[in-house]
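Notes, p. 3: input format for complexes.
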Amino acid sequence: MTVQQSSNRKYHSILPIALASVLILGTTRLVFDNSKNSKDSIFQWQYWLQGSGLRRYIINASVNDDDNDDNSYEDIEDCNVFEGKWVWDNVSRPLYKEESCPFLVKQVTCQRNGRTDNMYQFWRWQPNECNLPRFNAAKLLRILRNKRLMYVGDSIQRGTFDSMVCMLQSVIPDGKKSLHKVPSKKVFYAEEYNATVEFYWAPFMVESNSDHSTNHSVIRRMVKLDRIADHSKNWEGVDFLVFESYVWWMYKPIINATNGDPNDMREYNVTTAYKMALQTWAKWLESSINSKTQKVFFMSLSPTHIRSSEWNPGSDGNCFNEQQPIHGPYRGTGTNLEIMKMVQETLQNLKVEVTYLNITQLSDYRKDAHTTIYTERKGKLLTKEQKADPKNFADCIHWCLPGVPDTWNEILYAHLLQEYYN
Ligand SMILES: *[C@@H]1O[C@H](CO)[C@@H](O)[C@H](O)[C@H]1NC(C)=O
Ligand SMILES: *[C@@H]1O[C@H](CO)[C@@H](O)[C@H](O)[C@H]1NC(C)=O
Ligand SMILES: *[C@@H]1O[C@H](CO)[C@@H](O)[C@H](O)[C@H]1NC(C)=O
Ligand SMILES: *[C@@H]1O[C@H](CO)[C@@H](O)[C@H](O)[C@H]1NC(C)=O
Ligand SMILES: *[C@@H]1O[C@H](CO)[C@@H](O)[C@H](O)[C@H]1NC(C)=O
Ligand SMILES: *[C@@H]1O[C@H](CO)[C@@H](O)[C@H](O)[C@H]1NC(C)=O
Ligand SMILES: *[C@@H]1O[C@H](CO)[C@@H](O)[C@H](O)[C@H]1NC(C)=O
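Output follows (422 residues plus 2-acetamido-2-deoxy-beta-D-glucopyranose):
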């Protein structure tokens, strides 16, 4: 697992100009040679020495910004982007408008579904030690040229996929982009780039009786802890894979599962079962992933805000009507620390490199950003009566879009950028 380490570094001193320009010449050439797209070769690069190795810092591009590229960003390699704070930014946020993204599904269009406050759209995540690169859709599309990016997981992950589609689609002209559904998948395609962004439904990652892409609300959940092939055959060869799985495990502290004999269903402790599932997944990674050409990410658990007494002692509600993020230290019980620890330990011991996107804490501050009553249930928007009963009907698990998942994608973008220029 790759985890960004904290460091006190903010900016490195820059090498003496003469040495720096030699390095710039050398590396500009290198970048040019490796680049499929000559536009990318306009970067200036600066190098400096840090510790034992050569480190890179990318500064503003030179001229020729014909797609308004802002090519400056700080190398995030040594920065823990997951530690920071939410800052009010009604200038650069949101990254897209709900009404300008034709691909958004009803589940997440909170404004259209009647939410009247919209402050939740205007917060930007500011890491303590660095800045996230400004999201640039055209640049990401170039990174995704002839490639596939796939999100695997549950409906939270589907929201992250929807967010990414909205973040990308605005720069693609009509007729050159499409979204279609095939069983278990949603596929967004950017024709001019031959770039594919996909969502694959696998709420437990391993096989289960909840794998049907639409009809999965089975009452008796049953997970097949040692079986993954039905899913993983759809993941083979994908360039960028982003996995996520959490809420479906959390229904009860025990879960029915099989391991081996398909007729031998037993109740398992959820932590134990999830760990076994991750091991099955790890075996697939180890036998199938080519770390040279493929990159694997794992999204940490998305927290829930089901009990307002956790941030507002004495209250008896949930996330409904919350309009402000939590500022300051906070950790809700929607984050199961035992599961989180188990996942981190399991990922740490993998033979395949998996980048852990540790978005739990930053999302935990966002009690204001869930879909609450402005969403649908079983494919239908909440009725008037249901809306009048937020205590029973507010959804404090899923997130409005634009919203928090956009930040997760900005962080993913930062990593893809880092990878691309390495
Ligand atoms: C990069 O560009 C920004 C905005 O165009 C500017 O404010 C900043 O000073 C530039 N940084 C460098 C290192 O040239
Ligand atoms: C942005 O937020 C500031 C501070 O709350 C406010 O004064 C300003 O009117 C807002 N601007 C817009 C365009 O909403
Ligand atoms: C288009 O992208 C796919 C991967 O998504 C790749 O297999 C295929 O070769 C690409 N087509 C061309 C013409 O490059
Ligand atoms: C959904 O699946 C259940 C069994 O898993 C089945 O009984 C039911 O008919 C299915 N519903 C639809 C609409 O396909
Ligand atoms: C599940 O197993 C973990 C680790 O062995 C243990 O800490 C936890 O208490 C167990 N949970 C239940 C509900 O038995
Ligand atoms: C497991 O399945 C059995 C038989 O269907 C059921 O009685 C039991 O409640 C289930 N346990 C859980 C945790 O769902
Ligand atoms: C993820 O973030 C949490 C909270 O900020 C932290 O406690 C944990 O150590 C982090 N995990 C890793 C693997 O860095």
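Residues 3-60 form one domain.
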